[in-house]
Amino acid sequence: MTTEFTGASYAAAGVDIEAGDRAVELMKEWVKKTRRPEVLGGIGGFAGLFDASALKRYERPLLASATDGVGTKVDLARRLGVYDTIGHDLVGMVVDDIVVCGAEPLFMTDYICVGKVHPERVAAIVKGIAEGCVLAGCALVGGETAEHPGLLGPDEFDVAGAGTGVVEADRLLGADRIRTGDVVIAMASSGLHSNGYSLVRHVLFDRAGMALEQRVEEFGRTLGEELLEPTRIYSLDCLALTRTTEIHAFSHITGGGLANNLARVVPEGLHAVVDRSTWAPGPVFDLVGRAGQVEREELEKTLNMGVGMIAVVPRESADTALTVLADRGVPAWVAGEITDRGEHSTGAALVGDYAV
C-alpha cells in the first residue's frame, strides 16, 4: 500500500497571505488619517519614514521612546467581539509614557499577533489605533500583522506598540525640577484604563460569577461596556499645559498605582502627599473591591483608582493649569502637595479617606 502526499504550502500550515493582504487594504484609510507633514511614503513599505529635518528647529532635541501593550484586556475585547476600542488603550499606554518627560509624541508603530487573520477584525483593531494616534497628535507610520497558527487559537490575538517623541533638552521634565510646596494636580481617568485586568477578571468572573452581558446599575450599562471603556489619552492635554504654564513633572498612573508611579518622579528627600478625600473613585473600583474583598492597599497598588495622570506644578501655576484642563474637557483637581516634612519614608503616599 502506498500513501500519496500532496505538496506542503504556507496556507496548509495555517497562514493565509491573501487574508493578510486584504487586512492591509482595509486599514489603509484609517492609517492615512494619522498622517503628519513629516511622514514620507505610505503603508506597505518595509519601514515607516519620518523626515527628521523637522527637528532642526530644536537646539538640542532629545528623542523619547516607549513601548507597551494592553495586557489581558484584549481577552475581553475578543469575548465581546469589539475590536475598535482596544487600539485607544494601546496608544494611551505608549504616548502618555512619552509625554511624561515633556516630549511631543511624533509617531508610532504597532504589532498585532493573531491566531488567524480575519481581515475585518484586524482592520478594526488598526482603526482604533489610528483613532488613538489622532487623539495623541502622532502618526501611525507602520506596523506588522503576524499570523501564528498553532500558538494562538483562531480567535485569539494580542497587540503591542512602540512610539517616539521629541523634547528640547532644556525643557525636559522630571524629578530635578520638583520643589517643596509644589502642587499635585490629578487628572481623572476614564475608568480602569489598561492595568489590573488580571485581578479584575479573577474577581468579577471567577469569584463573583458575573457576566460581561450583565447590566450593572451603578454603571448605567453592561459590565462588558464598562470594562472596555477606552483609556483616556492625555498627551495633547499635557503638551497644552507645558505651553501655557510652568510644569515641573508629569506621572502616568499605570501598573503599580498612584503612589508608586508618582514616587518615580519625586526626588530624594521630598515627599508627595496625596489626599484621598479630594476625589471619589468611580463605581467600578468599588465593585472590584467589594466583589473580591480586595484590601484597599492591594487595590491602590494595582488600579489607578480614578486618576490617570498627575501634573506637579508650582503653586502659582495651579489655577492656570486647572483652567487649561477644564477648557479641554479633562476633569482635574488639586489632590496634594510636595513636602520635605513628611512622616512617610517613601516618595509618595496617600492619606485620608476617599470622598463619597
Fold blueprint:
Elements: H1 17-32, E1 39-40, E2 49-50, E3 61-69, H2 73-80, H3 86-98, E4 104-114, H4 119-136, E5 139-147, E6 157-168, E7 183-188, H5 197-207, E8 215-216, E9 221-222, H6 223-227, H7 235-244, E10 249-252, H8 257-263, E11 271-275, H9 283-292, H10 296-302, E12 307-313, H11 318-327, E13 332-339, E14 348-351
Parallel strand pairs: 4-5, 11-14
Antiparallel strand pairs: 1-2, 3-6, 4-6, 7-12, 7-13, 8-9, 10-12, 11-13
Characterize the structure shown.
The chain has 356 residues and is of the alpha+beta class. It has 2 domains: 15-42 and 57-168, 60s Ribosomal Protein L30, Chain: A (2-Layer Sandwich); 175-351, PurM-like C-terminal domain (Phosphoribosyl-aminoimidazole Synthetase, Chain A, domain 2), CATH 3.90.650.10. The protein has 11 helices and 14 strands. The strands form 4 sheets. The chain has a 6-stranded mixed beta sheet. Strands 3-6-4-5 form a 4-stranded mixed beta sheet, with helices on one face. α5 crosses α9, α7 packs across α11 (318-327) and α8 (257-263) packs across α10 (296-302). The N and C termini lie far apart (79 Å).
